[in-house]
Design brief:
Layout (H helix, E strand, L loop, with lengths): L34 H10 L2 H5 L18 H19 L3 H10 L8 H11 L8 H12 L13 H9 L16 H4 L15 H24 L5 H4 L5 H11 L5 H31 L4 H5 L10 H19 L2 H23 L8 H7 L2 H13 L3 H12 L6
Length: about 400
Amino acid sequence: MGKPALPEKRAVFATLWESSRGRFHEEAESATRTPFQRDRDRIIHSSGFRRLKQKTQVFVAHEGDHYRTRLTHSLEVAQIARSVARRLGVDEDLAEAMALAHDLGHPPFGHAGEDQLDACMEAFEGFDHNAQTLRVVTRLEQRYPNFDGLNLTWEMLEGLVKHNGPLITDGTPVSALPAAFRDFPQLERLELDQFAGPEAQIAALADDIAYNNHDIDDGIAAGLFTIDDMLHLPLVGDVFRSVRIEHPVLDTQRTVYESVRRLIGLWIGDLVAETERRVAHHNPQSAAEVRAMPEPLVAFSDDFDAQQRALRAFLFERMYKHYKVNRMRSQAKRVLKELFELFLAEPDILPPPLRQDAEQAPEARRARLVCDYIAGMTDNYAIDLHRKVFSIEGIV
């Protein structure tokens, strides 16, 4: 049996834990873990990470145990990120930590919840889940005696902020960024006009690989479309056909599992091949040179990206805009809108100590406190709380 081709040493452009720029609050180093392993562990032990278990990926968490939640999605992204990081010879622990943390800022009910909170906060500088992730790890997690947040390394914070690319391009002022970014006093020290390091870039595209392929699984399981509906798609249709030819009597579930497994392998293979091509072309000699490149180092090939867009268009029409999903989105938006308006108008019904802070705060500050409170909720908690505060049966 052949062995997988793995690099024997770290790539020259990998982020080196020995050269980490450190943390914004001084702490003694761990005797047993690298700084990035410590970051990963802090994410895993955080309250925000635990709450991902009941936050929507596409389907509301109580719709069924089969479907992905933000937690299971984050674990799948982390597995893919580690695999790619290992192939490319960069820091697996940092890539994994980025993947585990990337959705910490998501509110309940997925993108429907984000859209609604952004609408609720329109007069108060809006809501953005990526910016909220930074807020969670630098302010809202309160576990340590000497500082708020998780005190993650510089490399983790800059990766979380810039995993989708530079925040400042073509002279964009910092004042144009979401408020939750600007509230972080060290924001401009994160080199906002450059790309993130290679591990953060890997985590961002591992996210694409995970949701592209696992949405296929969840969509078929939910009855929103069938295998036959996907056969016209480039690449995806070819893989499903090949599994059917090789295993003509295989049941639907195993056919889906085998096809998705193969598709993930193809996605990873293309990502690694295109990234290696860019490494050969740009020849970066450090993670700093990766950040300063004129384009991302980690990427899919143009041909593969085109096939990926065809799948995304199919899923958008047949899954994300399906009437059953739209009904869930509509209900979710009403729940969050009504909770937000109630708590903003009546802060005295908020739990302590949030109540005291909100009652004494000007309206804009109160709105942000209410937004933080709602964004941290799970799907189930938001549904139960809505029932309690709006139903006479909820009076206790």
